[in-house]
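Example complex used in Figure S2.
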Amino acid sequence: MTHFLEPNRIPIFQIGDCLLLTIQVDLEDRMIMTLKDDLAERIAKSHAKGVLIDISALDVVDSFIGRMLANISSIARILDAATVIVGMRPAVAITLVELGMSLQGVQTALDVDRGMELIRRRFDEEAKRLHEA
Amino acid sequence: MRHEGGGADGGEIIPIVLGADVSRVRRAVAAAMAIIGASKIETTRMVTAASELARNVLDYGGGGEVRIALVGQKARRKVELVFTDHGPGISDLSLALKDGYSTGGGLGLGLSGARRLCKEFEIQSVPGKGTVVKVASWTERP
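Predicted assembly (275 residues):
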């Protein structure tokens, strides 16, 4: 886990078919760009089916960070993984809407448990479809 | 921070030159909102607006600065931010304030979004000279 040794990188954990990362610092622009690259690599390498991004520690999501979260979701989707953003603070949700960002195409859940549940349900549906085919 | 004394001192100035300065501005604005006892939602709005405006200074103004000041007394105290750059300026302000209008490949929500998030918003721009955006916010108390 070399990620731990680099203070400017956000660690990405793997739990089964899921990647989990927690954003706990005030994000500098460069850090989130690095995260985008790291995550794309990890999805491809690990064949992860889901990505959970916990933003409960973020007290501000501006249009730049919002756009990056949407970009990460799109990249993951193309790499056949579902992204769920979890733990958004109520004040952040209000501010994002007032800012004019609706985060379309980005799936959200209130906490990690519910996010996992969303991803699990997606696996099940996929398995069922494959089984029926 | 040099906020004590009611803000008559002209406030704190933070240069906006590097990407990392945008997060410095966010932290300083959050601290100023805490001093006036602003609510969580009002703080989030103001810090988000500051983040958008600081990024504009960086991306479109070629760098600049923000002055953070506390103005007014006691219950009427507010946080005032003045963003200044000496970039190319904005030739059509009403167009620049429209949602979704961008000349730099962004979402075009920075200026219009910041205006919605702050209680006071003023912009002055002279093509070829630069742009000054002044915003202020506070929390109403009974």
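The two ends of chain B are 28 Å apart (CA to CA). Helices of chain B lie at 19-35, 40-59, 93-96, 110-117.
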